[in-house]
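Treating backbone geometry as a discrete language has practical consequences that deserve illustration. Part of our work consisted of pairing the sequence of a single chain with a tokenised description of its backbone. What the numbers capture is local backbone geometry rather than side-chain detail. For completeness, the protein is quoted in full, as a sequence line and a line of structure tokens:
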Amino acid sequence: MNHVRLHGDPLADDASASRMRSFLRVALANGLRCAWSLDGLRREGATDDGPKVTLQDCDRVVSLPTRLPPAEIELLQRALDEAAPATAPVLVFAEADRRADAVAEAGFLWPSAAAVFAVRDGATANELLDRARAELRWAGLDSPPLAREPRELQPWLALPPATVAGPIVCFARDGFADGCDLAIAAWRRLRRTHAVPLRIVATTAMPPVVEAIWRALGDDLPHAEVLVAEPDPEHVRDAVAIALPWRRMGDARSLVHALASGRPVCAARFAATAPLLAHGACFPVGGQHVAGDAPGDVGFEPDEGSLLAALRAAIGDVARAQAVACRARAFVAAELTRNRPAPPPPPVAPAIAPPPTIAIEAAWGQEGAASERAIALVRALAARADVAVCCVNPARARLDLARLRAAAPDVALRLCRDPGDVDLWIAAGAAPRAVRPRCRTFAVVGATANAHSADFAPLLTQECDIAVAAGSGVAEALAAAGRAPDTVVAWSDAHAVAVDLASRAIAAAAERAGLPIVAMARAMALPRATVLA
């Protein structure tokens, strides 16, 4: 990997912006691949006059005035289009008065970055180039599970942008086990309003599988085609969307290739596939876990209505589909590419067993009820002497430390990039995370009225350990959707929820230490009622 990430505002009228643009020119000329996102853009630092320029990344479009020449704007857009590994070193360009905050903010944006360092005053572009290359050499290499080789991904990443008219493509290695029948059923319903063809790529030469697909198509054969071949970029070049309603974890290559193709992907998201499907990088297809024939064998049954809704969104909202496809490609480059820079080592566990640790993940510093609930929960938990509380910012969620300090200085002091393995992880954002974090107990707080829909099942209905619903109606809906009622907590107030969740964390810590709960309470000098509340 030969990537670095830049964080800063190159449109500002200051020395740090000039250094950033200078480094970008030198780095690209020397073969270093530089990625930049609009997260570092600070409107107050841009010039107020001059013609406006439009810049776009996967998440948003901005139009700001600038006097930069077109050649430099082209370099900036090239950096916006570059997708880098999440572990790439980050160079932070900021003026001295906010440099420390900018480094911290960049670290929270990319918590797995191999290194995050500030560019000092007076540093030349060539000096920074040497520093960036040194960071890449020192980092070592990392190959995440299910990731693919860059050479294998390149033909998929090189596909041009998706078309607005074309077939829906379904990869079906094992036929109906890969949800091919669901794709056919949803497509048949979709054709009542959208005249879109279907292409099934049966990646197996077993005649019974192909014959079963033909039978399922029935009278709709004139509007569909079935190919028997390994997935190839040419199969999706003209695709308007890709449907993968898997019932079990299939061949990971097919899913990674689909995400890298730049086409909107409608995929079943459950525990096995979640590591490949970040929030915002696909149109999720929800459903329910189902028991298999053998003991302990668990499969998944995608919801046909959820698949239909995902397909309608993918082909009916062009702007959203393009944004989702862009984020999917960036996610593949960030998390699913082998031989990327290695992330920093995990925190070293203390020699003495710490108190139960609770990590609260939320988009800190943003306005809204979800942020207020998260802040109230931190304060209620922090008031207890029997737990340690830390705050985690969701990866790729922008954080303004100055604003957070003004609104909740106590929360700002508890921020950390990586809490390590914790007893209880609370996801308190508006949208639940896709992948279970490293924790003994995983709770989702603030489930809203539509969070129990099939798109979020089985994450909320089965996979998280505790669901804290923002209202009794949502709690009832989650229970009706299959969640065990004793694992649903209706939000009443921050203190009540804190008592419940902290008690669970203490119980998990007691289990970890091999102590009975009462013994754990005595060891921590806590009243028994507190532990058992």
